[in-house]
């Protein structure tokens, strides 16, 4: 959209993200996304037994695929996306909030105002 307006909702001088939340990103070709994600997760899990990881995906279908693949690789993973019933999403969200040693693969359905 060409006539967009940028609105900054973060006050000047304040942090963009919580200082205790470690965030990372990586730019890679599409065919490398899953192998790199798996390698990063394995490294993170090895460094911290009480890990809690959020993986954001672009669509519900991609979310389900990534969660299924990680589950097949014996990682402790849950998924939340718009194709799951609200009762399921609430249960998984509560489980993730209370748990350690868990990976939550999600679409943008978890990106807005969620406190884990």
UniProtKB/TrEMBL annotation:
What keyword terms does UniProt attach to this protein? Answer: ATP-binding, Helicase, Hydrolase, Nucleotide-binding, RNA-binding
Q: Does DNA damage appear among the keywords?
A: no
Q: What does the record give as the function of this protein?
A: RNA helicase.
Name the chemical reaction catalysed here.
Answer: ATP + H2O = ADP + phosphate + H(+)
Family note: Belongs to the DEAD box helicase family.
Xref: PANTHER family: RNA HELICASE
The domain of life is Eukaryota
Q: Where are the transmembrane segments?
A: none
Any one GO MF term held by the record is: hydrolase activity
Record-annotated Helicase C-terminal domain positions? 41-116
Q: What is this protein called?
A: ATP-dependent RNA helicase
Q: Note whether Methyltransferase occurs among the keywords.
A: no
Segment forming the signal sequence: none
Q: Give the species.
A: Pisum sativum (Garden pea)
* Note on domains (UniProt): The Q motif is unique to and characteristic of the DEAD box family of RNA helicases and controls ATP binding and hydrolysis.
E.C. designation(s):
3.6.4.13
Q: One Pfam family of this protein, by short name?
A: Helicase_C
